[in-house]
Design brief:
Radius of gyration: 17 Å
Distance between the termini: 25 Å
Helix content: 25-40%
Oligomer: single chain
Order of helices and strands: HHEEHEHHEHEHEEH
Largest sheet: 7 strands, mixed
CATH class: Alpha Beta
Number of strands: 7
Number of helices: 8
Strand order of the largest sheet: 1-7-6-2-5-3-4
Shape: globular
CATH topology: Glycerol-3-phosphate (1)-acyltransferase
Number of domains: 1
Structural class: alpha/beta
Length: 253
């Protein structure tokens, strides 16, 4: 095991912890998620690729092609130090099935009706507000995504304030979702290569499928045993992903 990891946090006002009247996750979206890539979404992907490329950002995907045929997966991405790792994965991965991200509502949709309307139409986000959200909110959102054959993405560090030289602590929510749904996890490592001018290039490395599911009967849902197991497994996953991030080697497929 590596040295004990610190927690990453995001800062926002107390008012931002209150979810909107329509609710969180799928309730906020107002309909079920979908796996298909619309023409508008494909156009957005192309636009992002061109715009980011104009500023020097190149995305090199490793092992991402299999997401088109693998069935629903829980994508666990790290490290999370910028706000465009999700864009890099969206550009590098196949357009369909769609990737639906767990996102913090206060930052992403809590800044105007136009942004909220656009995100609802394009899809790809199921926001939560940490003031009231528990694992059941995330589990319901992930289950709805898996039911239509799409992927659910999370950044388990939970914020962008982690240290620059190592991973921050992984929160155990992704492991608990995998335990309760049985959907495999695809660890996704982001390796940024800075340039003197312009945006950095980025490798997006999808490692082999993994799962916290134990042999035999899994821990009882909601039990202390489940949480303890999920925390330990998440720490081990963070260590494996951090090694790939440092060395650029691992088991991409």
């Amino acid at each position: 095991m590596s040295e004990r990891k610190v927690r990453a946090y995001s800062s926002y006002s107390r008012d931002a912890l209150i979810p909107p009247p329509e609710g969180e996750g799928v309730a906020w979206l107002g309909r079920q998620p979908w796996a298909e890539a619309s023409l508008a979404y494909r156009a957005l992907r192309l636009t992002l690729r061109l715009v980011l490329g104009a500023f020097g950002m190149r995305v090199h995907g490793v092992g991402l092609d299999r997401l088109a045929t693998s069935g629903p997966r829980l994508l666990v991405g790290a490290p999370h130090r910028r706000y465009y790792e999700a864009f890099a994965l969206g550009i590098g991965a196949p357009a369909a099935p769609r990737i639906w991200w767990l996102g913090l509502g206060p930052f992403i949709v809590g800044r105007g009706r136009v942004r909220s309307t656009l995100l609802r139409r394009l899809g790809g986000l199921l926001p939560v507000w940490r003031g009231t959200s528990g694992i059941e909110t995330h589990l319901n959102a992930a289950s709805a995504v898996f039911a239509v054959g799409a992927h659910y993405g999370v950044m388990p560090e939970g914020g962008t304030t982690g240290p620059s030289d190592r991973f921050a602590e992984f929160r155990p929510g992704a492991a608990i979702i995998a335990l309760r749904t049985g959907v495999p996890i695809v660890p996704v490592v982001f390796r940024f290569h800075n340039r003197r001018i312009g945006l950095p290039s980025v490798e997006v490395i999808a490692l082999e499928d993994t799962s916290p599911c134990v042999d035999g009967r899994p821990p009882e849902a909601g039990s202390r045993e489940e949480l303890t197991y999920a925390v330990q497994w998440s720490e081990e996953l963070a260590d494996r992903m951090e090694k790939v991030w440092r060395d650029g080697v691992g088991s991409p497929v």
